[in-house]
């Protein structure tokens, strides 16, 4: 089936002419929180009680409490924060950050130091959307070679292999796959479309400066595709990165990696950075001796060159990124001389460019006008088993957004309005079928925020998008935050999201088996409503800080692309029949029992079900495949003084999950007994030794050595009708150890 549409290029040009390009300008903050300390000669910190904190243009201020903490309201005209204490030199600092302000006062006559810091992971206290920050300190708790490996210590996001051959990974949030999570890079939708399959592997961990993990419906400013949550990845910026950063990594399976980042300030306004990454798997691993590689061989090279211009009234960034990867999985050709063998191959080439321009108003920091533009070409070719079973995919995307932000009377009433434009050209083919389409989606949006400082925040947003193939679509969303006290915060949200699925590219795991693919319907956009609430409470156990967060979210689909694996001979794609929903509950406790030790305890419960059409034509409401109901996570981190030694340990327990019935004699009925994979646990650990300007780290993953015994059915006869490598529910490889090094030259040197 082949469909073509004309007019893509003129529409892209029109989008440029209309300046549907965007950037994100930060909402004016109403409250600034921080702490004031004295730094002792041994570099230990002592809180200063009763230190005065006030704005330069204000007659009064606040005093720090018994732990040196303060919280002060900020008006649009407030910029300079003055901190003073008897016997210490007064500090004045400019505050333009949403982070936690940490002020180090020195005895009069000594030099001052002011830093902005945050805990390893924390909830954004000001944002009405439940958002967790993952910063570089958290990322360093594990090897974190790429984005897919950045959530080892995160309870909200889990990552697993999609199958036993391709090496593709998929994230999961609120019990649903990463397809329903809008994954942005600096507020640009990035891991989507054809990039969904391997896109998480294409963002190196050393490029990342932070990750924002938002649950539920996100802001309408960033688009309509957020259905269960959003990830926003911030990359290293050229004006505040190390002059030189080098990271190397190698593990016991033969995977190696080299990352080199450089940055340079050319003058007061211009800076330039270059981020590079190269990695590869060079050794064939077959731990269960089924003749199939447990992980594919691959070679990956990618680089990003970015420039930044910053003045008092303008900020501009632009850059270009290129990527090339080649991977080979399946059986080793050398072991099958003059015999047929099963091999998987994939080659990806990707190029993208971006530009951002923001108009700044120093005298009115609450006002903003920004533009951003991104264009990308993603070219992928793959084959499964034999080169004749081939897949080709080409996606060309142009994205742009225009945002204007201002206030109504005062900063208690702010609004954002704007317009966006996205054009996608898809050219896919698999076997003898072609799937071509052009999507053109201009849209407009508005968002209003009402704030009662330190008490209540309400965000009302809506957007209207005009899809050339699927008509006009309205996306409303609402978020609210109520501060029950200074330590207890209640959040609630509700909103709609929708997206157009790519059945083949998003389900590569379905292609590494002998089952026949049947597309039973003309695929329609997926659409869902998400509702949720959370409560976060800060408290003390003795004199030590602790935080407890509870949240519940429900996702109800109006339409979902059903990937039906119930049959031993077919994989069926069809639009939703009956019900499809997900319930997610999570409890997370963060506690610091002693100095320099952090402990995280989390429990997550999923109830995810959808209606499946049985062999008799009836609907059966069944638990979602490969989704474990229960998950427990424990993470313990400890660091000695000055971070000379750092120790991190993570234990995860994953409950049972429903899997396809492996019996080829099985006849599916509404009364069929579900089949479940067993529960399992694994342990990851890392030790880091810090030296002057460099670190050495040694770690291990899956230290319990647990693995799924036979992830590939009929591995001895891969061209039979019983062959299936898509039934992966646990680790494919056993215990792995690694070693790495980080070395840097700070920008101030």
UniProtKB/TrEMBL annotation:
<dbReference type="InterPro" id="IPR012910">
    <property type="entry name" value="Plug_dom"/>
</dbReference>
<keyword id="KW-1134">Transmembrane beta strand</keyword>
<dbReference type="InterPro" id="IPR039426">
    <property type="entry name" value="TonB-dep_rcpt-like"/>
</dbReference>
<feature type="domain" description="TonB-dependent receptor plug">
    <location>
        <begin position="128"/>
        <end position="229"/>
    </location>
</feature>
<keyword id="KW-0732">Signal</keyword>
<dbReference type="InterPro" id="IPR008969">
    <property type="entry name" value="CarboxyPept-like_regulatory"/>
</dbReference>
<dbReference type="InterPro" id="IPR000531">
    <property type="entry name" value="Beta-barrel_TonB"/>
</dbReference>
<dbReference type="InterPro" id="IPR036942">
    <property type="entry name" value="Beta-barrel_TonB_sf"/>
</dbReference>
<keyword id="KW-0675">Receptor</keyword>
<keyword id="KW-0472">Membrane</keyword>
<feature type="domain" description="TonB-dependent receptor-like beta-barrel">
    <location>
        <begin position="280"/>
        <end position="703"/>
    </location>
</feature>
<comment type="similarity">
    <text>Belongs to the TonB-dependent receptor family.</text>
</comment>
<protein>
    <submittedName>
        <fullName>TonB-dependent receptor</fullName>
    </submittedName>
</protein>
<dbReference type="Pfam" id="PF07715">
    <property type="entry name" value="Plug"/>
</dbReference>
<keyword id="KW-0813">Transport</keyword>
<keyword id="KW-0798">TonB box</keyword>
<dbReference type="Pfam" id="PF00593">
    <property type="entry name" value="TonB_dep_Rec_b-barrel"/>
</dbReference>
<dbReference type="InterPro" id="IPR037066">
    <property type="entry name" value="Plug_dom_sf"/>
</dbReference>
<keyword id="KW-0812">Transmembrane</keyword>
<dbReference type="Pfam" id="PF13715">
    <property type="entry name" value="CarbopepD_reg_2"/>
</dbReference>
<keyword id="KW-0998">Cell outer membrane</keyword>
């Amino acid at each position: 089936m082949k469909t073509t549409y004309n007019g893509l290029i003129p529409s892209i040009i029109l989008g440029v002419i209309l300046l549907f390009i965007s950037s994100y300008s930060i909402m004016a903050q109403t409250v600034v929180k921080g702490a004031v300390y004295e730094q002792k000669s041994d570099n230990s910190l002592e809180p200063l009680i009763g230190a005065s904190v006030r704005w330069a243009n204000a007659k009064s201020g606040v005093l720090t409490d018994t732990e040196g903490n303060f919280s002060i309201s900020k008006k649009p005209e407030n910029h300079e924060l003055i901190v003073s204490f008897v016997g210490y030199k007064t500090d004045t600092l400019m505050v333009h950050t949403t982070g936690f302000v940490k002020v180090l006062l020195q005895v009069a006559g000594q030099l001052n130091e002011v830093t902005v810091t945050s805990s390893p992971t924390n909830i954004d206290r000001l944002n009405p959307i439940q958002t967790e920050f993952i910063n570089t300190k958290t990322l360093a708790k594990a090897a974190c070679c790429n984005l897919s490996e950045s959530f080892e210590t995160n309870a909200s996001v889990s990552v697993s292999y999609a199958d036993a051959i391709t090496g593709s990974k998929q994230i999961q949030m609120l019990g649903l796959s990463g397809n329903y999570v809008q994954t942005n890079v600096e507020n640009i939708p990035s891991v989507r479309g054809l990039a969904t399959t391997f896109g998480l592997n294409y963002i190196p961990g050393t490029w990342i400066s932070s990750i924002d993990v938002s649950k539920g419906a996100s802001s309408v400013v960033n688009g309509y595709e957020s259905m269960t949550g959003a990830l926003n990845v911030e990359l290293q910026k050229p004006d505040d990165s190390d002059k030189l950063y080098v990271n190397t990594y190698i593990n016991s399976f033969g995977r190696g990696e080299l990352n080199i980042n450089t940055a340079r300030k050319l003058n007061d306004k211009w800076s330039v950075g270059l981020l590079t990454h190269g990695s590869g798997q060079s050794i064939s691993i077959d731990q269960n001796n089924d003749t199939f590689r447990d992980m594919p061989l691959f070679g990956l090279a990618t680089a990003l060159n970015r420039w930044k211009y910053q003045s008092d009234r303008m900020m501009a960034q632009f850059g270009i990124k290129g990527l090339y990867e080649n991977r080979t999985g399946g059986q080793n050709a050398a072991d099958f001389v003059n015999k047929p063998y099963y091999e998987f191959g994939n080659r990806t080439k990707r190029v993208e460019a971006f530009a951002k321009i923001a108009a700044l108003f120093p005298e009115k920091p609450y006002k903003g006008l920004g533009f951003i533009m991104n264009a990308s070409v993603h070219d992928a070719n793959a084959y499964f088993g034999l080169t004749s079973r081939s897949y080709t995919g080409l996606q060309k995307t142009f994205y742009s957004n225009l945002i204007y932000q201002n206030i109504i009377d005062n900063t208690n009433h702010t609004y954002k309005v704007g317009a966006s434009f996205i054009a996608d050209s898809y050219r896919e083919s698999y076997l003898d079928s072609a799937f071509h389409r052009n999507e053109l989606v201009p849209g407009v949006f508005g968002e209003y925020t009402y704030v009662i400082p330190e008490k209540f925040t309400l965000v009302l947003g809506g957007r209207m998008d005009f899809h050339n193939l699927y008509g006009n679509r309205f996306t409303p969303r609402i978020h609210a935050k109520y501060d029950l006290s200074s330590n207890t915060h209640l959040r609630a949200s509700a909103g709609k999201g929708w997206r157009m699925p790519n059945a083949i590219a998003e389900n590569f795991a379905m292609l590494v088996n002998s089952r026949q693919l049947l597309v039973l319907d003309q695929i329609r956009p997926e659409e869902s409503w998400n509702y949720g609430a959370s409560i976060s409470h800060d408290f003390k156990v003795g004199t030590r800080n602790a935080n407890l967060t509870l949240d519940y979210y429900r996702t109800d689909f109006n339409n979902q692309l059903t990937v039906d694996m119930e049959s031993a001979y077919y994989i069926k794609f069809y639009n939703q029949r009956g019900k499809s929903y997900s319930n997610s509950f999570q409890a997370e406790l963060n506690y610091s029992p002693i100095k320099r030790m952090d402990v995280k305890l989390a429990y997550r419960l999923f109830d995810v079900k959808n209606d499946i059409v049985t062999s008799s034509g009836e609907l059966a409401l069944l638990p979602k495949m490969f989704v474990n109901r229960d998950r427990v996570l424990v993470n313990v981190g400890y660091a000695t003084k000055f971070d000379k030694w750092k120790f991190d340990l993570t234990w995860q327990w994953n409950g049972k999950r429903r899997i396809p019935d492996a019996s080829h004699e099985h006849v599916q009925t509404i009364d069929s007994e579900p089949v479940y994979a067993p529960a399992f646990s694994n342990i990851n650990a890392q030790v880091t030794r810090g030296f002057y300007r460099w670190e050495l780290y040694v770690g291990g993953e899956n230290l319990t050595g647990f693995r799924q015994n036979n992830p590939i059915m009929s591995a001895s006869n891969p061209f039979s009708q019983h062959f299936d490598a898509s039934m992966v529910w646990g680790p494919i490889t056993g215990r792995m150890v690694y070693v790495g090094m980080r070395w840097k030259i700070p920008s101030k040197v």
